[in-house]
């Protein structure tokens, strides 16, 4: 079975500081990994995905994530936080080649606050 | 990518009634999914909506409570039946593209009184 753990339900950074949101996964097969962002009262927006190509994945809005198999991690980073980055971030995993197929399993989410 | 719309965007319903949520996508897709997001929580998959056959439900969700229709490759409905306050949630549909990306609709915010 696949699972995702997001360390830190709340993260607060100053505007211009590095953003680091942590995600660790568990999967019995090579996983596909995703980061989504949810702004208040909106649906989820795909930030980036990892599907077994390059381990460093660049997404929208200046975010990137690095797949580290040895650490079973897929942490999300952004060099310089902007006020507009304040939102809820979800990491998700699917084991496309395993028993769960296309289904996404989501982490519990990390709420990012950005201080002026 | 895919553009997804949902109707209604929000509703307030009385206990014991049913609500049908519509999901429309701007292109033909094979995989459509329905999720529930309870207040302040993450997303839980309710079912996979299969075109031309019955939906596949996840553990803890049953067809009598959450009947789903998928009449074609661009449209699906989820009904929340015999509602109770515990059904108050955001319900989201999503679609999967050929590049294995899932795109989500804006959600339907349901409050049951």
C-alpha geometry of chain B: globular
Distance separating the two termini of chain B:
37 Å
Count of DSSP H/I helices of chain B: 0
User: Which series of helices and strands of chain B comes N to C?
Assistant: EEEEEEEEEEE
Q: Quaternary arrangement of the chains shown?
A: heterodimer
What is the residue-mean pLDDT of chain B, rounded to a whole number? 93
Shape label of chain A? globular
Largest sheet of chain B: 7 strands, mixed
Task: Name the helix and strand elements of chain A from N-terminus to C-terminus, one letter apiece.
Answer: EEEEEEEEEEEE
Low-confidence stretches of chain B: none
Helix content of chain B: under 10%
Rg of chain B, nearest Å = 13 Å
- Sheet-strand content of chain A, in percent, reads over 45%
Structural class of chain B: mainly beta
Structure description:
The complex is a heterodimer of chains A (116) and B (113). Chain A has strands at residues 3-5, 10-14, 19-21, 24-26, 32-38, 44-50, 56-58, 64-68, 73-78, 87-94, 105-106, 110-115. With 116 residues, chain A is mostly beta strands. In chain A, the strands form three sheets. In chain A, strands 2, 5, 6, 10, 11 and 12 form a six-stranded mixed β-sheet that branches. In chain A, β5 (32-38) and β6 form a beta hairpin. In chain A, 38% of the residues are buried. Chain B is mostly beta strands. The termini of chain B are far apart. Chain B is built from no helices and eleven strands. Helix content of chain B is 0%, strand content 51%. The chains are: A mainly beta (116), B mainly beta (113).
Entry summary:
Chain A has 116 residues and is an all-beta fold.
Main traits of this protein?
heterodimer, A: 116 residues, mainly beta, 6-stranded mixed β-sheet, 4-stranded antiparallel β-sheet, 0% helix, globular, B: 113 residues, 7-stranded mixed β-sheet, 11 strands
How is the secondary structure organized here?
The complex is a heterodimer of chains A (about 120) and B (about 110).
Chain A: E1 3-5, E2 10-14, E3 19-21, E4 24-26, E5 32-38, E6 44-50, E7 56-58, E8 64-68, E9 73-78, E10 87-94, E11 105-106, E12 110-115
Parallel strand pairs in A: 2-12
Antiparallel strand pairs in A: 1-4, 3-9, 5-6, 5-10, 7-8, 8-9, 10-11, 10-12
Chain B: E1 4-7, E2 10-13, E3 19-25, E4 31-37, E5 43-49, E6 56-57, E7 68-72, E8 75-80, E9 89-96, E10 102-104, E11 108-112
